[in-house]
Amino acid sequence: MNTLTQPSKPYASWSKFLTDLWMHGMCNMDEGKAQDHARNLTKPLVESFTRRNEASNVRPSSFLACARQTYFSVQGHPSGDMPANIGSTFAVGHLLHEFSFAACRSAAPKELDIASEINVDLPEWWPKDETKFNQSGHIDMLCTWTDEAAKTAYLGPDAPMQMIVDFKTMGSFSYKKHGKTVWGEDPDGFGYLGQVAVYCDALGLLDSGAIIAGINRDQLTAKLLPRWIEPAALRAERDRVKMAIDMAVRGDDPGEEFLVRHDDDAHFFCGRNGKPGYCPFRDICREQPTR
Ligand code: SF4
C-alpha cells in the first residue's frame, strides 16, 4: 500500500497532517478500500433522492445551534421543509464523505487506525426522552494512533493520540468562510461546533479538541480544509448546549437567542432583514417575537 511517508520533522498540527493524508489517499487510492466504501454508498445514494427524513427530534446535528430551535423542537413544532430538489446535494455529500474515509484509510500509516461512521451513545447529561431526543449519534471519523512513537514521528510529542474528524461538504463561498471562522465567536448557524462538542464529551475527548474538515464540492481538486477546534471552545459550547436543553425541557422559551448572541450577523441564518434564512423555525420564530 502507498501510505503517507513519515516526515523528516513532525507536522505542525493534526490539521496539516490530515490535509496531506487526505490528498495522498485521493491521489493513491487503495482499490480494496475504494471498493469497501463504494459498497456503503448504494443505500444513502438511493435515499438521497427517495426519502426526506427531516429531523424531528433534537440530535447532535439538529436543533442545537440556537436555544430557541431546541425549545421549538421539544415543544413539538414541525421544522420547515427542505427544498424538494435537494437530493443531488445530499448524494454528492455522501459520495465525498465515503471517498474521504477511503482516502484517509488508504494513506494511513499502519499505526494509525481510522474508524468511520461510528455509532456513539450520547453523554450522561443528554435527556433520556427518546420521543424528543435521539439517543445515539454518528461520528464521521475517529483517528487513533496505536503506537506513541509513530504518533510522535508524524505529529510531535504533544499532539493527542486520538482525534474526532467531522467532514462537511460545502460550496466555495462556505469553504472560504470556513477557513476564517473563529470557532466559539462567529455565528455557527448550522450547529457544527455543538455537534462535535457533544461527540467529544460522549467519548471523553474534550481535551483533544476536534476537527471540522471542509470539502469543497464546487472545486473538487481543492485540498481538504481541516480546522482544529480548541478544547476551551468545545467546553464552552458543550455548556451552552446543556443550558439550551435544560431550558427546553423545563418549557422556558429562551427568546431569539441566536439573534441576541450575534445581532446583525445572525440575519443570514435567521432570515431577517431581507435574507432568506436557513433556520428551520424561522417562520414561527418571527411570528412569536419576545423582544
Ligand atoms: S430564527 Fe434565529 S433566533 Fe429564531 S429560532 Fe431560528 S436561529 Fe433561533
Helices and strands, with pairings:
Layout: H1 14-27, H2 31-39, H3 42-50, H4 67-74, H5 87-107, E1 112-121, E2 136-145, H6 148-155, E3 162-170, H7 172-180, H8 192-202, E4 210-216, E5 225-229, H9 231-250, H10 257-262, H11 267-270, H12 282-287
Helix pairs in contact: 1-5, 2-5, 3-5, 4-9, 8-9
The structure holds iron/sulfur cluster (SF4).
Iron/sulfur cluster binds at residues 66, 68-69, 256-259, 266, 269-270, 279, 281-282, 285.
Give a quick set of tags describing it.
291 residues; alpha+beta; globular; binds iron/sulfur cluster
Distance between the termini: 61 Å
What can be said about the biggest beta sheet? 5 strands, mixed
Number of helices: 12
Which regions are unreliable across 5 or more consecutive residues at pLDDT < 50? none
Q: Helical percent range?
A: 40-55%
Could you give a short description of this structure?
The protein has about 290 residues and is an alpha+beta fold.
Could you please describe the fold and organization of this structure?
This protein has one domain. The chain is of the alpha+beta class and 291 residues long. It contains 12 helices and 5 strands. The relative contact order is 0.17. The longest helix is centred in the middle third of the chain and has 21 residues, at 87-107. Iron/sulfur cluster (SF4) binds next to α4, α10, α11 and α12.
